[in-house]
Amino acid sequence: MSRYELTESLMPLMADREELIRWDFIPMYPTFEHYIRVLFQTPQFFVVFWNSVKIVICILAGQLLIAVPAAWAFAVYPFRFRKILFTLYIVLMLMPFQVTMLSNYLVLDGLGLMDTHGAVILPAVFSTYPVFLIYRGFCGLPKGLIEAARIDGAGEWTIFRHLGLPLASGGILSAVVLGFLEYWSLIEQPLAFLKDQTLWPLSLYLPEISIEQAGYSFVASIITLIPAVFVFLSGREYLEQGIIASAMKE
What we know:
This protein is an all-alpha fold. The chain has a single domain, classed as MetI-like fold (Orthogonal Bundle), CATH 1.10.3720.10. The chain has helices at about 5-15, 35-40, 45-75, 80-95, 95-110, 120-125, 130-140, 145-150, 155-165, 170-185, 190-195, 200-205, 215-235, 235-245. Helix 3 runs parallel beside helix 6 (about 120-125) and helix 3 runs antiparallel to helix 10. It is elongated, with a radius of gyration of 24 Å.
């Protein structure tokens, strides 16, 4: 698309009725009008913002409560059918949401969770990907070290807390970072399970802003982007460690 075509297409959006569009790198008339509008004059934005915060925090907390013990069990305890069950985990991890959407819908409807945040949170809590990622971190713990700790009288909880968790901290934190980035921008699950717009997260609210409100949409997008960028930059080192650990063979 040429510059002329681009200008003609965007002129009604970016220009006033009585003037032509100008492509200035620095705005001629900087204003914080839209920031003030979003931060102080739009209660709906704060509702959907805190909806996103609630959904993401609940999902990540639930995932850690389930994924960390499950990964520890897969890595340390040689129970029957362990390999078969872990293979099933991998298969489920590879399934896209579209494959499980109908079954999720039927279960959530039977539980009476439709059109609540629980409909988005509950299926995500049982995601298999954090188990896989954290499991690789636990696999690096030498078996001899565990046996030595048991001989010295250490209980299973002590071994898990003092040996397992420090070693797998990179995988755990990388699972948290990846989970935050995924669920902060969640689209399909809220769209399928949430009909009440007051329950929507930011990822559904932003596309609903009309094209005539470009300034408002831009500011809302910037504010939405800030937490994701902060989490990514803060956990970048752990993210790299987790990815490297997940790529290592047993």
